[in-house]
Design goal:
single chain; rod-shaped; 1 helix; about 100 residues; mainly alpha; about 90% helix
Length: about 100
């Protein structure tokens, strides 16, 4: 017997019980962490899928905008050419009329 009145065996059993409780707590925490890690992995997979969708959509939008810009340039060039031709024809008409008038 100890000075506290407990036998060595009782002390050892109490210590084993304490270790058992701590081990169960550790196992529960490890299981909890495992669940959180699985959830995190699922969320990461979803995020990866969403990023791939975003990349595909952004590429499509980029292509559409590029074509829209090219079409706009073609339209502006066509307008400039038509305007230039109109101005050139007006100048030619003015020159022809002025040479007829000086004759």
């Amino acid at each position: 017997m100890d000075s506290n009145g407990k036998s060595h065996l009782q002390k050892t059993q109490e210590e084993v019980e304490e270790v058992k409780v701590i081990m169960l707590q550790n196992m529960n925490k490890a299981e909890e962490r495992s669940g959180k890690l699985n959830e995190l992995e699922d969320r990461a997979d979803l995020l990866l899928e969403e990023s791939k969708k975003f990349e595909k959509t952004s590429t499509q939008v980029k292509t559409q905008k590029r074509w829209a810009n090219k079409k706009m340039k073609v339209v502006l060039i066509a307008v400039a050419v038509v305007a230039g031709l109109i101005i050139l024809s007006l100048i030619i008409v003015a020159i022809v009329q002025s040479t007829k008038g000086s004759d």
